[in-house]
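Exercise (ungraded).
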Amino acid sequence: MAKRDAGPELEFLFSQGVPKHFETGEHLMTEGAPSDYIFDILSGTVAIERNGSSGKRQILKFLNPPDFIGAASTPRYPNLATALTDVTTICYPRGPFDKALRVSPDFSENFRNSLTRMLEASNDHVFIVGQRSSIERIASFLLMLRASQANADHNFVNLPMTRTDIADFLGLTIETVSRAFGSLKGAGIITFSNSHSCRIVRLNQLREIGGRDDFTENRGRI
Amino acid sequence: MAKRDAGPELEFLFSQGVPKHFETGEHLMTEGAPSDYIFDILSGTVAIERNGSSGKRQILKFLNPPDFIGAASTPRYPNLATALTDVTTICYPRGPFDKALRVSPDFSENFRNSLTRMLEASNDHVFIVGQRSSIERIASFLLMLRASQANADHNFVNLPMTRTDIADFLGLTIETVSRAFGSLKGAGIITFSNSHSCRIVRLNQLREIGGRDDFTENRGRI
DNA sequence: CGATATTTTGAAATAATTCAAAGGCAGTGG
DNA sequence: CCACTGCCTTTGAATTATTTCAAAATATCG
């Protein structure tokens, strides 16, 4: 989320922020609810998901600090947001938020840039799910997590979500996810201490499998 | 694209617009090229695509009037834009465009809403490719085209793109696309006059298969 | 009309899913 | 502290949807 450093309207917006806490499994917003709030994530992991009429579930994004939720331009949220861990947020009402967007070009530009990044992340997601094998998807996924987690040990990756969540994010089943992790492990590319965290042992091989060059962060660059 | 009705900066921006024409197969922009221009599409169909290192191709979006291209916040375009038909555009340099975004809250809001809609369309895309069978993907695709084409005959759908393009959009092969069209035809749900246009005969059945309720346009609504 | 590219159809191969069961881990209560 | 319970994950075997490879049919274009 765009950070505080200018203007009385922004000061006002930030003064309107209310801390909100969610426990694992709670919904920050539900499909069809009025899109009255925007949440700035301070800690924890949130899944944005869509539940199809046929019972299918697709996770659209995993969000972590400093992401925010509630970009919807529609009057109601189109998707469901679920806390995968304990989550703390600051919750801003949409009124002052929109006001700040209109009044502050800097704030507006920051928000626009965030939207663009989310759009590019979605494009990456479509590419992964549309074109890649299960092992490649898992490799890309691990690389994405690695990039988004500023761990002291860069090759240690946290997996706060369940296998079901990973499967629903990557368009696979939990069994396929498990087998893909298994074959990366078997190839000596990653190791597991427990099932919710792993260590990348051969980063270059993982990058090769994951197709590092195919993603936004690494394209369109000088 | 946000349309003209206010302010001197917008007047200036619009005065800077240059008409550009592209023939089938030409690129409006290429991966890694400086993102110096934004194109307003006046006619024709453009594919935004990503070509993976392994030779895989994913079409991220099919764009038609009044869509625009070049939202990239990065200094270089991350994706490739290809004209699928003859395409006419107005090309705006990024400088005045960004200036207009900073100066006009209305213009900025329009652009932000466009970005949000694109993001929601991407989310739909992820859902389709991640969760649905080949026939369901084709059904959704036909419904999307139907919605985006304001044809006099609402159940007549143009397919300006090739089967390869459709396959690369839906994460399938051309053979699977062909077979899926074949089974919808066999079920009497659609008919073909030629391979680049079809008629929806049983819209409700197509909607059932396509999962109409699962998409942004039909959710988050009152 | 002939040549080339695109689309459709067919048969075999394969990646992923489904169904089924075992293994591992965390929390609860005795 | 240990056994029990329930949940999540892993592994196995069979099934299936989609892909791949190959060829025929159809459309497009000079």
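Further reading is listed at the end of the chapter. For now, observe: Chain B touches chain A through 55 residues (CB under 8 Å). Chain B has a mean pLDDT of 91.
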